[in-house]
Amino acid sequence: MKKFPKKLAKKLSGREEKGVLRQLPLQINSIDFSSNDYLGFAKSQEIFELSHEYLVSENLMSNGATGSRLISGNNKLYELIESQIAKRHQSESALLFNSGYDANIGFFSSVPQRGDIILFDELIHASIRDGIKMSAAKSYKFYHNDVAHLEELLRRNGKVKEENTIYVVTESVFSMDGDSPDLGVLSEIVSKHEAFLVVDEAHALGVLGNNYLGLSDDKSVFATIITFGKAMGSHGAAVLCSDKLKEYLINFARSFIYTTGLPPHSLATIAMSYQLLEKSEESKRLQENIQFFKKELKRLDLTEKFINSNSAIHCCIISGNKEVKKVTDQLQKEGFDVKPILSPTVPENQERIRFCLHSYNSYQEITQVLELLSTFVNQ
Ligand SMILES: Cc1ncc(COP(=O)(O)O)c(C=O)c1O
């Protein structure tokens, strides 16, 4: 057996002792209440075939990008798709990244400078936190969706504005809670304090907003991060921003510069996902399922146990890793693919079962899973 460092072995056994060792699950054939494929686009035969035809018609039948976009990887689809995305989102520009993780670490490690301040919602995604850790700017968290606390921090740090910049970061739909900030109020406060707003729309694109393109208003944000691995069913991400910021990121975002670009088929899939989003009824169907889910929560007296959400993510709080795992196991045994979210991923006592809703879940499936849940938690 290969040698393994003692400190790492200790960390692994620590997790095992606490019952929180992460393991890769097998693909199971049960009813999907856990994937981010909110619209079923990842399984869409239509997108798959159209993407292939598109690549053939563009004479781009290659399997890989061949290099960083700054060297040999910048095939013609990049420019075309970036300008289509920018136009659809009414943004001046768009810059594609290989994933949402890459977009966030690239953005936050390169944009805020020494002397700048980053104010971020305490429940912000790990990819943003990692980017912030790589930045030379100081950062402070504000209480979740608490604009009064944000304003207090903006006031307290107001002096730095003379020479520096304050960035405020939030998500339009929070990945672990499914809830949303009041972006209208938030952007007013940010603009009153002459700060710069950055919004991650990973879980809103395809689900919420005008034409299901997300909730943030381009005029009041400095940059928006959208990702394609969730409702769009493909892969990659884009930063929606000004031409100047795009130029800056191309020059300084290391996760953009020092990596092989996305392969052409990923780009074609993104383009075809947008086409389907425009013409299909899947987002509307998802909305109907979200409303039905909420109605069922009320009927089964479960509303209080859930975090209030209008998105595709709905969380039932069950305190304690052991307790939440027990209920999840029972639901899984009955054929429902639901996942427990344990501490330390979420704070202690905030452990939860996360239900991801999809356009392809039937009303019957929703009723069945919630009736079962209510027998386990309403005892
Ligand atoms: C809010 C948020 N931002 C960014 C990401 C990262 O996106 P990707 O999966 O494309 O790396 C995620 C994914 O979990 C997310 O939930």
Helix and strand string, N-terminal first? HEHHEHEHEHEHEEEHHHHEHEEEH
N- to C-terminal distance: 49 Å
Taking all residues together, what is the mean pLDDT?
Answer: 95
Low-confidence stretches: none
Strands in their spatial order, largest beta sheet: 2-8-7-6-5-3-4
The percentage of residues in β strands lies in 5-15%
CATH superfamily of the largest domain: Type I PLP-dependent aspartate aminotransferase-like (Major domain)
Structural class call reads alpha/beta
**Structure summary, number of beta strands:** 12
| C-alpha-based Rg, rounded | 22 Å
Largest sheet composition:
7 strands, mixed
Total number of helices = 13
Say which molecules are bound, naming each kind only once. Answer: pyridoxal-5'-phosphate
The count of domains is 2
Give the % helix: 40-55%
| Name of the CATH architecture of the largest domain | 3-Layer(aba) Sandwich
Topology:
Blueprint: H1 6-18, E1 31-32, H2 45-57, H3 76-88, E2 93-97, H4 100-110, E3 117-121, H5 126-133, E4 138-142, H6 147-156, E5 166-171, H7 183-192, E6 196-200, E7 223-227, E8 237-241, H8 243-252, H9 254-257, H10 264-279, H11 282-299, E9 313-317, H12 321-333, E10 336-337, E11 339-341, E12 352-356, H13 363-377
Parallel strand pairs: 1-10, 3-4, 3-5, 5-6, 6-7
Antiparallel strand pairs: 2-8, 7-8, 9-12, 11-12
Helix pairs in contact: 2-10, 3-10, 4-5, 11-13
Describe the structure.
- The protein is of the alpha/beta class.
- The chain has two domains: 45-278, Aspartate Aminotransferase, domain 2; 281-377, Alpha-Beta Complex (Aspartate Aminotransferase, domain 1), CATH 3.90.1150.10.
- Helix content is 41%, strand content 14%.
- The chain is built from 13 helices and twelve strands.
- The protein has helices at residues 6-18, 45-57, 76-88, 100-110, 126-133, 147-156, 183-192, 243-252, 254-257, 264-279, 282-299, 321-333, 363-377; strands at residues 31-32, 93-97, 117-121, 138-142, 166-171, 196-200, 223-227, 237-241, 313-317, 336-337, 339-341, 352-356.
- A seven-stranded mixed β-sheet has the order 2-8-7-6-5-3-4. Strands 9-12-11 form a three-stranded antiparallel β-sheet, with helices on one face. Strands 1-10 form a two-stranded parallel ribbon.
- Helix 7 (183-192) links the parallel strand 5 (166-171) and strand 6.
- Bound molecules: pyridoxal-5'-phosphate (PLP).
- Pyridoxal-5'-phosphate (PLP) binds next to helix 4.
